[in-house]
Specification:
The complex is a heterodimer of chains A (about 250) and B (about 170). Chain A has about 250 residues and is of the alpha+beta class. Chain A contains four helices and 13 strands. Chain A has a six-stranded antiparallel barrel with strand order 4-5-6-7-10-9. A three-stranded antiparallel β-sheet of chain A has the order 11-12-13, covered by helices on one side. In chain A, strand 5 and strand 6 form a beta hairpin. Chain B has one domain. Chain B contains six helices and no strands. In chain B, helix 2 runs antiparallel to helix 3, helix 3 packs antiparallel against helix 4 and helix 4 packs antiparallel against helix 5. The chains are: A alpha+beta (about 250), B mainly alpha (about 170). At the A-B interface, helix 1, helix 3 and strand 9 of A face helix 2, helix 3, helix 4 and helix 6 of B.
Amino acid sequence: MLSAFSRAAKLKQWIARPDCPAFLKECKRYFDKAFSTTPEDSNHVADSAFRTVPPELRATIPAGPKVAVRARHLHDGVVFSRSKTHVGNSLIMYYPDGNRRDPPIPAEIENIVVGMDQRYTYVVRRQLPAPPGTVDPFAPYLHFPAKVFSSKISSTLETVSPEWVMSHYARWKLDKDRVVVLNLSRVRKVLRYTLEPLSSFHRINSAGIAREIVQPTVLRSSTIFVFLVSQNRTVRSMVPTSPTYLVP
Amino acid sequence: MEVMDRIQEVIRNTDTPSWVESVPRNFGDPAAGSLKADEWRTMTTIYLPIALISMWGEGTTHATPERASFLRQVLDHTMDLVCAVYLAGMRTSTEARTSAYLYYIKSWLSKLQTLHPESTLRTNAHMAIHVADFLRLFGPIRSWWCFPFERLVGQLQRLPTNSKFG
């Protein structure tokens, strides 16, 4: 049984490789069809599902002849749902316009629409930022990517292409005005901090908390960061960074 | 227990996507049993930190300033471990993350017996430091962790037997 297990593991790994022969991949597809217990989730929408754009979406969806409204969408192996269907699967961190230089924004998928060209679009409402001056107890822990937001979601609808989505997020209601947004991405570095005035470095230092600052121009490399360690009051650079940046 | 109530409340009321595995809603009760490794991971990276920071973090109020400061120290100490687990569990690894992991795990270990005098250092703590070496040598933990073998053990355990060896 042990050897069958490891043989199966090796086979799975081989099929997952990009250089695996197409023939084998085809075999797997048929094998899954015949024996898999979970039905193959297809994103293809039948022609009969298309209707005229619902009135509440007319202002958001570019004028097109017909669209189909879906409850969920399987993208890159992950299920995304509208909030009415499954709130947890509808919470997404996304890069507006697919621009990965700016930090991702949390939003709730309200609707999933499909165009006649079978292109999926999420219609979302952003989670509003917490009002200025709100205490964010999560801010000191730089490697725990949680942040306080307002419990309200935006009144305006926006459209998001599935490719702009970074990951899901977890949300917990802290009190009536605030929610905690925890980015669940296990891959990309979460960039929450930008360069701040010198005074705030000192404030953070004396509070005894390590904190990370990221230089906006090097965001794409996503590994360059500076660690401020308070106990010995030294600035420790984990990887070389630009000198203009180590001002303190 | 106010703390356990808060943790259970966070487990119950956090909206998570369906790929996040569930943990027992009655975590901490005898009936819940002990958590499995993967459930601990979910607890440590999602529910525990949210619950503890919301109770002991900046902006919370406590009976005395001493109490507040002590709880904050306990929280910061726990968060060292949370951040270490979080960094180690990433699906990509970089030298910066590995160094940060080492920083957190060392910081957590060095303060453990000061903040929790009743605790004893175990071999696991020593092993946790070596995880940094393995991250450097073998890359993301996902490619060398023991969950596949655990799955095999599970399959073997579920085999029907007549409870006799051989």
